[in-house]
Amino acid sequence: MDAGIRPQDDLFGHVNGRWLEDEDIPADRSSWGPFVQLADQAEHDVHAIIEELAAAGGDGDVSGDSQKIADLYHSFMDVERVNELGVKPVRPLLEAAAELRDLRDLAAFLGDFEKRGGGGLFQSYVDNDDRDADRNIVYFRQGGLGLPDKSYYLDDKFAETREKYVAHVERMFALAGHDDPAGSAATVLRVETRLAEGHWERAETRDVIKTYNLKTYAELKDLCPGFDWDGWILNLGGTGDSLFETCVRQPSYLEHLSTVLVETPVEDWRVWMAAKIVRAAAPYLSDDFVQENFDFHGRTLNGTPELRARWKRGVSLVEGSIGEAVGREYAERHFPPRSKAMMDELVANLLEAYRRSITDLEWMGEETKQKAFEKLDTFMPKIGYPVKWRDYSTLKFYRDDLIGNVAAASSFETARQLAKIGAPVDRDEWLMLPQAVNAYYNPGTNEICFPAGILQKPFFAPDAELAENYGGIGGVIGHEVGHGFDDQGSQYDPHGNLHDWWTADDKAAFQKKSKALIEQYDGFEPRALPGEHVNGALTVGENIGDLGGLAIAHKAYSIAREAAGEKVSQEDSQKLFMNWAFCWRTKRRKETALQYLTIDPHSPPEFRANIVRNLDEFHAAFETTPDDGLWLDPEDRVRIW
């Protein structure tokens, strides 16, 4: 803490100022703070589980999860064999890419490549239909880029990054023994820049109405006739029936893509495809590929000086491939039943606080309130770990085939996703692993999920003060529930369907408040990035989540104290707000901070902490005055929920 900074002027700086000055980010990290520290601890815990399961899984039974974990982890940790093989594991793919004859070949190749975990010209995924939440369909999003966002290709401020990107791609081509590395790297940038020109702006992609465009298979083909959809879906592992109806998030991108496909010579597509192959495989190839890949994606893009230890990268591979098998063990060891019971109570109090708050809203009419209550009543909390675990019985790994194992894991997941189409929506499925230090709200199932990994100090602990828990995980719970009522989530009904349940007057009042929050955040300049500003339109959903979440957490804390026959003191409120600020204690490398400011829908941590400026409860707890840095005139404070 920094006693020289008053909480009334800067709560984030008061709680975290000395730490920000004195703490060093670990050399293998791009950021540091409670979130990453908990992730580090979870990583060590998972590593211990993997080592133990790997030691127990030496009986040769490839159907057992312990054996799969043992074989996959061993294949990654066998550095001697990986280095001996060099680029050989992907040589057949590179040779096949060099023989692509036309666009039909390209589409077919991409289907197989994406099935194995590679990236294509667009992103595809399976989820329940935004307007018919009881069925699963395929969604398409813009893609095809090697840099984080279209702005990296088109904005002058990223010109130096583009130059370094081309130099990086050239070195990767050289390592792979590709002809004309320099010319090929320039080709990759040229092709990706053309693709980027058709991308939507980041803030636009948040609009759930604008991005819902249901297309029949015939309409999809008409939208992008330059792409052979039949060949692509067949090699991906599906059929035309898989694409009977799909949702295209950015239809103008697919139109643009069709033009780029036709205008770009097949020779250029061969080069672009080769770059994709090498990039996808680089983390699993010999050390020279690993180091070059890290040098750009770690050092240049994120400012991270040091590659993470190999065992840490091995843990990430296991978690990404067979993560629930490890997560099952993690939950048994690190999430006691007492924590589950306390979390159930916390969630119940947060939902009750939302109900009371909505009841008292002056800007919302009774008709809309009743719909909001209905949505609250159907929220499904998921706490700790899944009620049923994923079946990995058909997945096989081999100790001497790392690239093959990576492909097998991706193919398994692709097949699992495609099998959802035409099947009932599984509302028990988790979208995060139990060991994840995170949380989420899914509008299509109206669920809130809090994995065991985040249910640790400073967010939550069975022996913590109530004020700490409500200022930590209470704010996170409130935030995730708040996503059901943010500018986009509020357009989904209790059953997970896009359905307008607002009266016109209430929607106008809500949009007015959202606009005020956008304008407020547009004016914020991060202390570590002078001259840069927050994108209020991109971050408004998360800001609404923080704003409502923290206010409701404070109200829920009052409910908990009421149940015990107690009242919330001024000191209690201060503890709650200070733990909220502590949870957002974060230090980022400049490159990472700039990237996040460009692409992340969350505001920088300091503004997440200092959203307290909008809360009457904060001003009362710290007795602020108009002379204080966080003071906002009452009429300028944004209060939504």
From TrEMBL:
* Origin: domain of life: Bacteria
Gene3D superfamilies, per this entry?
Answer: Collagenase (Catalytic Domain), Neutral endopeptidase , domain2
Q: Which InterPro entries match?
A: MetalloPept_cat_dom_sf, Peptidase_M13, Peptidase_M13_C, Peptidase_M13_dom_2, Peptidase_M13_N
Domain Peptidase M13 C-terminal span(s) in chain numbering: 438-638
- Location of the Peptidase M13 N-terminal domain: 7-386
CC per GO annotation: plasma membrane
List the GO biological process terms: protein processing
List cofactor names only: Zn(2+)
- CDD domains xref list: M13
What are this entry's molecular-function GO terms?
Answer: metal ion binding; metalloendopeptidase activity
- Transmembrane stretches in the record are none
**Keywords tagged on the record:** Hydrolase, Metal-binding, Metalloprotease, Protease, Zinc
Family, per entry: Belongs to the peptidase M13 family.
Kindly provide the name given to this protein in its UniProt entry.
Peptidase M13
Species whose genome carries this gene = Nocardioides islandensis
